[in-house]
Amino acid sequence: MFKETKAMKNILKLTLTSVVALVLTACFDDTPEQGTPEYAEYMEKQAIETTLKTTPEWFLDIPVSDKEIYGVGTGISPNMQIAIDKAVLESKISLADQTNGKVSSRLKQFSKEVGSDEDKTIISTIEKVSLNAITAADLAGYFRDQIVVQEEKGQYRVFVLLKLPFQRVNKLALEAVKKEAILSTTLAESDAFQQLEAELDKLENN
Model's pTM, two decimal places? Predict the structure, then answer.
């Protein structure tokens, strides 16, 4: 009889503990009622928080290197390959923009060395060449460094990190100079241009 009473007391304690836990959970649950505008806003915030937690660190904090430039992209689609293609294209656009910026810096360095950095014709040509040095569609020589595929609301969410060696960027800068007569007759005379050209020739011949 004593054992049965003790067992009953233990069961009662467990039951009371469960009830108290349920009551406390209900009291502290700040989830808005379903079907209300507040609930829709709450769910949107939850989705954003989940996305941020699962987003690769390198996507939010793009790597920096003195050997390559990096570009990130993301894409979403019910089809995995299409999601990958979207992410790669976005990343290539980022790489192309950065490449054009690097080419512009190189050309300005060449022009400054030969004393043409204030020549309006040279400056205008550099700006024109830099804007069209490379496009995402023509971008070549890049490598896929990272790729992450996740599920998001029944679709594929893809994150991609591409990298492009500075060797490729420097080659584009030299090609840009050679394509424009006014640049090839001035900037190609700079020591920086000739040294860079020699370095690239050496790398390509090894």
Answer: 0.66
